[in-house]
Amino acid sequence: MSLLTNLRALWHMNNNWQCSAGGYHGTAYGATFGTPKLGAASGSFDGVDDYVAIPPFDVGNIHTLAFWGLCRDASYLKDSQAMGKEARFSVYFTTGLPIKFISGNGAGWSGGWKSANTIITANTFHLGIIVVNGSTENVSFYLNGAPNGSVFCPNIALNTTFWLGGREGASAGYRLNGLLDEVAFWNRALTAEEALELYNGGAGIELGGGAAVSGRRRRMMAMREAMYV
Questions:
Q1: DSSP letter for each residue of 96-138
Q2: Residue range of the domain that includes 55
Q3: For residue range 43-75, what is the model confidence (pLDDT) as tens digits?
Q4: pLDDT tens digit string along 70-127?
Q5: How far apart, in Å, are the Cα atoms of 185 and each of 3, 20, 136, 203?
Q6: Quick check: is 96 in a domain?
Q7: How far apart are CA 88 and CA 133, in angstroms?
């Protein structure tokens, strides 16, 4: 299966906030561009008042979020809250702590933070992947291509409006001071093989074109090519 299958939204951050899948283009408020992990640039956030607003879209009952993130200090990666709906979720990306996920349904948050296992180091790009299953109310984490914990998380929000770098109106202590690159949503659960493929030994891959062919298919293609050498 191609990594482009059921790709719902994708932001390369290549000196613009355009969405390469789905057309959910971002509007920047103070956010700029910085050193890339992949491509020409990454989104850069100052930890004070920068954010990017993304139009609402339904990520589906089962979905995956993947991103390359670099944190300069302890701060949010992204705080997301629905506009006009009583549903919200947040992803924390904090130096010295694991990736954290929280979701609610308007009646309150879902019983505490749901955390991955491995702590985040500062000033280094990490690949974070969060697989959310609204049917089983389960959240699975991958960090740098490897499984990094799985937890029960009730009241998982679905249709939301997103803010990258920190929610609109959030105080400076709740915003990302760092970089984001290659942020993507799928309307399906990525597999462990696909998580490893996205990490690509630490080099990563920029989604799109031939780079988004699954690892299994790529190996089969290489084997066929070898037969004719």
A1: TS--EEEEE-SS-BSSS-EE-SSPBPTTS-EEEEEEEETTTTE
A2: 7-227
A3: 998 888 888 888 887 777 888 989 998 888 654
A4: 888 654 444 433 222 234 566 766 666 667 776 665 555 554 556 667 777 888 999 9
A5: 11, 11, 19, 20
A6: yes
A7: 15
Sequence letter at residue 72: R
2 part of a folded domain = no
Residue 176 tokens read as 């990302």
- 43 membership: H or E segment, kind and range: strand 42-46
CATH number at residue 213: 2.60.120.200
- As for how many domains the chain has, the answer is 1
Terminal CA-CA length for the chain: 26
Residues 6+ apart with CB under 8 A from 224: none
Structural contact between residues 122 and 72, judged by C-beta atoms closer than 8 angstroms = yes
| Three-state DSSP class for residue 172 | helix
Does residue 76 fall inside a structural domain? yes
Q: Examine residue 1 and state whether it is found in any structural domain, yes or no.
A: no
| Single-letter residue type at 214 | S
CB atoms within 10 A of CB 23: 10
Q: Find out whether 184 and 12 touch, Cβ atoms under 8 Å.
A: no
pTM for the complete prediction? Answer: 0.82
